[in-house]
Structure to design on (69 residues):
């Protein structure tokens, strides 16, 4: 066991929540490969969570507090 927690030392980990369509064959590795081409290495999400739908409020904004963080 480490005497310090790397998550607290370096900040929070990036997690992406993805809502797939019905017949989507998209995988987590596909998303990471695309993001690595377009963003800096430190911005690539380590965790990718697939959900049925993203929770939204009445104005259409995503409710991040309702996602399983």
């Amino acid at each position: 066991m480490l005497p310090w927690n790397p998550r607290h030392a370096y900040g929070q980990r990036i997690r992406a929540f993805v809502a797939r369509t019905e017949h989507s064959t998209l995988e987590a590795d596909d998303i990471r490969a695309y993001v690595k081409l377009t963003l800096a290495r430190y911005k690539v999400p380590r965790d990718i969570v697939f959900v049925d739908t993203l929770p939204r409020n009445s104005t259409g904004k995503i409710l991040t507090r309702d996602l399983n963080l």
